[in-house]
Amino acid sequence: MTDKLKVGVIGLGFFGNRHARAYADHPAAELIAVCDSDPARAQIVAQATGARDFSDLHALLQLRDLDAVSICLPDRLHEEAAVAAAEAGKAILLEKPLAHDNYTARRIVAAVEKSGVRFMVGHILRFDPRYVHTFHAAAPERLGMPIHLRAERNGVRATASRLGSSSSILFYMGVHDIDAMQWIARSRINRVYAQKVERLGTGNEDALCAVVNFENGAIGTIDYSWAWPDGLMNGFRSSLEIVGTKSAVYLDCSDQGFYVVEQGGTSGGDTHLWPEINGRITGALADELDHFVKATLSGAPYVQHHREALDAIPVLDALAESAQTAVPVDVLR
Question: Is-contact 108 95, C-beta < 8 A?
């Protein structure tokens, strides 16, 4: 491998476009190729970044000088791209969730481990300073034994309408908190009981609430909704808390510390996740890609092992089953 990581991006939607821009600006990366099933979209990104454009991911993966790829496709398209990238010997950054169900996720992991390529799942909260601070504040010597956790993540109905049946509230939004709760609690979820509501006709659940049990005896609650009117400031709000025998930690991401007040109302903007500052993508997403580039070049471990990322998927499957059957479900790993 050369002194720069030669990278391609597969899927140029909301996140893929940002991945491409971040790589193009990175001093230790060289964006050499981008791919999208829409050739016009691929050409636009290629012209903006100086990369080659492709509409066939398999053609992109045949590039001999390509070291790594970011896969930013919809959940249900992850398997084909990830398995092909693994078989082509490319390091992989796969946008969350790992897959749309546990069976598919395990097939991806098996392909990656068989090939021996580097593999990282893009759980952005692992790079959000607010969640990293919460993780360290919840260390056993400070928190004691966890008693209960609560996670809330609410978004706007326009997101659900845009995604339609290509994803779900659990796999698009919920994976963030399932991963974060298990990480921060230092324990896996082993049983869930969920209920959902569907009234807006978006092709998705409008809201899902659940009680979850952890292997260490803690109990948790989750509250997911993307039924909020589109006027919700910043388009989302989230919070997380963990209470232990010694202390408690509370995290509130409901606002970004930035407000614009006009006659029509109050709005805000992203200041933490992927804000564009001085023409560059910054924030937690840029830090995530920076870590991927540097760790891949140096051979250092990624912040999160892919097996830990895999641990979130059977929990999401169990939540979906419980919401459908209205009975508690054990998490099968």
Answer: no
Instruction: For domain 126-278+311-330, give the fold.
Output: Dihydrodipicolinate Reductase; domain 2 (3.30.360)
**CB proximity list for 233: less than 8 A, separation 6 or greater:** 255, 259, 266, 267, 268
Q: What would the pLDDT profile of 138-163 be if each residue is shown by its tens digit?
A: 999 999 999 999 999 999 999 999 88
- pTM exceeding 0.85: yes
Residues β-bridged to residue 250: 241
- Cite the residue boundaries of each domain of the chain with CATH code 3.30.360.10: 126-278+311-330
For 153-190, what is each residue's pLDDT tens digit? 999 999 999 888 778 999 999 999 999 999 999 999 99
Fold (topology level) of 5-122: Rossmann fold (3.40.50)
pLDDT of res. 245? 98
Give the mean pLDDT of 72-81.
96
The answer to whether residues 98 and 38 touch, using CB atoms and an 8 Å cutoff, is no
> Which H or E run includes 225?
strand 219-228
**Closest by CA position to 229, among listed 157, 152, 154:** 157
Sign of the dihedral defined by the CA atoms of residues 310, 316, 321, 327, in that order: positive
* Spatial separation of the C-alpha atoms in residues 285 and 283, rounded to whole Å: 6
